[in-house]
Amino acid sequence: MTTVLKSFSDSNQVIGKIKDDNASGANDLEELARKAILSFISKPYSKKTLLIFLKKLKSAKPEMAPIMNTVNEVIKIIKNSKNVKIRNEKIKKMISTSDIDWNALLKNASRVMKGKNVVLTYSYSSTVIEVLIRLRRTGRIIFVPESRPVNEGRNTAIKLKKAGLKIKFITDAGISKFIKDVDVVLLGADSFSRESVINKIGTLAIALLAREYKIPCYVICGKNKFSNISLNETAKNPKEIWDIKGIEVKNFYFEKIPVKYFTGIITD
Prior knowledge:
By secondary structure, this protein is an alpha/beta fold. It folds into two domains: about 1-95, Four Helix Bundle (Hemerythrin (Met), subunit A); about 100-265, Rossmann fold (3-Layer(aba) Sandwich), CATH 3.40.50. It is about 45% helix and about 15% strand. It is built from eleven helices and nine strands. The protein is globular.
């Protein structure tokens, strides 16, 4: 990501990169947002221009809690620090601090994963991928659906395969056929609250299928995803699904799912 960031001539290109990236997970995009903030404050700036930049950054992916939470923390620092040098140091310290306690997350996840030989995941979640890699065991099989329309499931499958895991790649429509063979479902999240989870559209269908077949279904994510974000998603490019005239094509990426449909949320 550092190489990509250096190629941008101004902050608007960073925001455009985040806004247009429909395949990366929330944590990966938050990492890019963090680097963008560091890049911004490394040059002379006014408080007003920084706040404008942060507002645009927050609106680039409003459904992703990590970006929203990071930006809000930076805004707090700006409001409480009049001295530019002190403000920059506080921002750098906050951004350099990991927002996921991996020891706690892996400890909690290992309890759920114990004895589970067949896993199904969905879409692309860097947190789920990291957990599956760190808790990998011989013979474990991971079912990965394609995750249309941008097929980010392929990136998930490739990363897990490179780490030595055994992958079974399936169509989204094939989830209902293969979920009966699964021991546990592990899903990521773009944000979660006490009431609901926001994640890739199709997550609710998977949760309901798992419930029907009495298969444990967990959301796994860091506490940096906790937020009461309301989902006000605008429709994405219909041509990703079908480039046709005279037919309305509906293309949405996210949905809000009540937490009652999951066995639990594994976090740090």
